[in-house]
Specification:
mainly alpha
Length: 242
């Protein structure tokens, strides 16, 4: 904490920078929500609708692109590992998330079971809110209990998978080569997830080494919660308008 010429306390520069960058990220989310429907661009949508037969490499690419550019997934993953330090523990939670979204994405598309895109994306936005509140210790403070974080990660993984399944179903993907293409897409998603995770861990490890981490961690989770509410609100508004 520093003080101005009048002796008033003001946030340290790193904290202000963190708040600024996260605020800019929120504005980017507002733009991205209208431009990227769950990280599937118009060009990708056209390809998914038109392609027939087995196309392993393109679907690997689409899966990886979806995860790397899927801001809702990245925010949730960021929240999940925020206070995890050991690689074994990180691997466990990331695996639970991967099992969850892989299961419902594959099963949802294969059996043609989807959820309204606005509703499931609103739930996915709420998953970010939930994880931020969990990181802030809100549930223990409010209710005197701590939810099982492993079960919550798996359950929200299921819901994230339904989000993508619903989009693919809407695009009426060809049944010719469907299983192979879905598996390739899912492998691509996992590659993208590992890529995003590696980048997050590099940043987190450097950030945790700074003396201001404990103070900034609270602000980061509050802003992450705000981002989750924004994502949820955008989807609810879209549902009401549609």
């Amino acid at each position: 904490m520093t003080h101005d010429s009048a002796g008033r306390a003001r946030p340290a520069l790193p904290a202000r920078r963190l708040a600024l960058w996260l605020a800019l990220a929120l504005l980017a989310l507002a733009w991205a929500d209208s431009a990227l429907a769950h990280a599937v661009t118009l060009g990708d949508k056209g390809y998914i609708q038109e392609v027939t037969g087995v196309h392993i490499i393109p679907f690997l690419y689409l899966g990886a692109k979806h995860m790397v550019t899927g801001y809702d997934h990245i925010l949730f993953l960021f929240g999940v590992i925020f206070f995890l330090y050991g690689m074994k523990e990180i691997g466990l939670y990331v695996s639970l998330f991967a099992i969850g979204h892989s299961t419902t994405m594959l099963a949802g598309v294969w059996f043609g079971f989807g959820i309204n895109s606005y509703i499931i994306d609103a739930i996915i936005g709420f998953s970010v809110v939930y994880k931020a509140l969990d990181n802030l210790g809100a549930f223990r403070t409010w209710f005197g209990v701590q939810p099982d974080t492993r079960a919550a990660t798996l359950i929200f993984g299921f819901l994230h998978g339904f989000g993508l399944a619903s989009k693919i179903i809407d695009y009426d993907i060809s049944p010719d080569g469907l299983l192979a293409n879905l598996i390739a897409f899912n492998v691509g998603v996992e590659i993208g997830q590992l890529t995003a995770l590696a980048a997050i861990l590099v940043v987190m490890n450097r950030w945790r080494a700074t003396p201001s981490f404990a103070r900034q961690a609270y602000a980061a989770n509050v802003l992450m919660m705000v981002a989750g509410f924004a994502l949820t609100g955008f989807q609810i508004a879209g549902y009401l308008v549609a």
